[in-house]
Design brief:
There is one protein chain. Helix 2 packs antiparallel against helix 10, helix 3 runs parallel beside helix 10 and helix 11 runs parallel beside helix 13. The chain folds into two domains: 175 residues, Alpha-Beta Complex (Aspartate Aminotransferase, domain 1), CATH 3.90.1150; 247 residues, Type I PLP-dependent aspartate aminotransferase-like (Major domain) (Aspartate Aminotransferase, domain 2). By secondary structure, the protein is α/β, with parallel strands linked by helices. The protein has 13 helices and 16 strands. Helix content is 36%, strand content 16%. The relative contact order is 0.16. Strand 1 and strand 2 form a beta hairpin. The strands form four sheets. Strands 4-12-11-10-9-5-8 form a seven-stranded mixed sheet, sandwiched between helices. It has a four-stranded mixed sheet with strand order 1-2-3-15. Strands 13-14-16 form a three-stranded antiparallel sheet.
Length: 429
Amino acid sequence: MQTSQSARLFEKAKNYFPGGVNSPVRAFRSVGGNPLFIERGKGSHIWDADGNEYIDYCCSWGPLILGHANDEVLNAVENTMRNGTSFGAPTRLENELAELILTFNSFIKKIRFVSSGTEAVMSAIRLARGYTGRTKILKFEGCYHGHVDSLLVKAGSGLVTFGNTSSAGVPESFVNETITVPLNNKEAVLQAFERFKDEIACVIIEPIPANNGLLLQGKAFLSFLREVCTQHQSLLIFDEVISGFRVSFCGAAGLYSIQPDICTYGKIIGGGFPVGAYGASQEIMSCVSPEGNVYQAGTLSGNPVAMTAGIAQLTQCLQPHFYRELEEKTQYLVNGIMSVNSFPLFKLFTLGSIFWIAFTDKKNITNADDIDANSMQYFKTLYQTLLKKGIYLGPSGYEVGFISSAHTYDDLDKTILAFKEALKMLLIE
């Protein structure tokens, strides 16, 4: 596989960006080699700077649920761009996307658009603190909520801990407002509330943790969190930046029929453009400026191009059987790969149109500690083999894969064959 153009571009990029990239995982450090520079995409396929073609299961980390360069999205965006790309003022398009979302997602009553998932989570945390008058937040080890200072915290020792910062530049005082507990551990949550009682403003969780493996929690644990938060008058935040509009139009809240107090969204509602949002009840959202005293603003919030792309994409997601067909394709791929699997530790975990590759002897992985860091060497070998066979995944064994409506059964069959051959290579090595 010729990659000289990507290599040349990467060397040049190192002069401009830290590590040659604008987001760390793109550097390919966990899978080896140089990152591929992508030139274009259409449907389920992408092409790199050297002309190599791949079936893409990264889908820009999830938002491209219709695949690349969807014609309806592109046509709508082109029409909007001819009228201007940004005004810093209200537009009709903000109303249209909000109405579309609120009409078909009964778990939120009002919404505020922002420009990224990180910004949505940051704003939701501030809103929870402003609404409750409390300062501490409880998060779970293994859940990622963007690069918000107070959430870049990893667990310390013990069930209930203030933890340690996982990034330089995050003050200890920020860390001390964040309680970190293990996933799927009711006792740890109860201990945290017993110890801090009425200090906890909110509990934040990815209801479908998909940033550090696919750590499926199930409805029972999420229902437990709902009950505990209600009991202690803390807010429950579902970070649905990945799961929102991906596993169902109403996300995990709809899938499990659990009402969070605040939901955060991103990725899919931008149709490939930078966007995020947070939503809640009218009572909670009334605290947001200019109606309330919780300040949050953004020049590009509700950007007309992103709003247009979101309208075009989500309208297609509302077509009959859209999510059922995505899940059927995902099951076809997963079952096909497992039917030809020859490597004893290889497993695929899946929910909806999300899947995750793991090398483990465990039947289920629900906690970050259950992931064997040494198993990532297997993923590294698998990744490079699949790449040479024209299969593109996110370049980390901790990341999940996605199916789009653009993936065909021919794509899936080719992928199954590629996995069969790559898994045999693992046995040889």
